[in-house]
Amino acid sequence: PGETCRHYEYTCPSQCTENWPHDITVIADFLHMHAIGSQMWTTVNRAAMEPITLNRIDYWAVNFQSFTPVGSQGANTPGDGLVIKRGDRINTHCVYNNPTQAASRECTLS
After folding, report:
1. What DSSP assignment string belongs to the chain?
2. Are 40 and 93 in contact (CB under 8 A)?
3. CB 106: neighbour CB atoms within 10 A?
4. N or C, fewer C-beta in 10 Å, the chain?
């Protein structure tokens, strides 16, 4: 049977970002899923801080995709971008709704 609201979480761990040569500043974000996607969000997690939502789409529509400006506190906030520091953890969450597919397929980041 098909699956409804299947959640996947992908992580870029702090052990990865701590090897970056320097911090990076994100000025825009582009979340992308295909037709069975229903929700997607990315958070930046820093020690001793609440996670910062880099971008979030709660009602995915494949025909309405765009870049989202990123400010100092995440998506659509004022500022000149969000600094992702060496040692931060980045998590991307994807929710798929696929009630008609007969068998499940593994989803991966590309």
Report:
1. --EEEEEEEEEE-HHHHTTSSS-EEE-EE-----TTEEEEEEEEE-TTSPPEEEEEESS--TT----EEEETTEET-SSS-EEEPTT-EEEEEEEEEESS-SS-------
2. yes
3. 5
4. C
Q: What is the pLDDT of residues 45-79, one digit of tens each?
A: 998 899 999 999 888 888 888 888 888 888 778 77
Residues 78 and 71: their CA atoms lie apart, in Å, by: 5
Residues 6+ apart with CB under 8 A from 35: 62
Q: Where do we find the tokens 């959640």?
A: 7
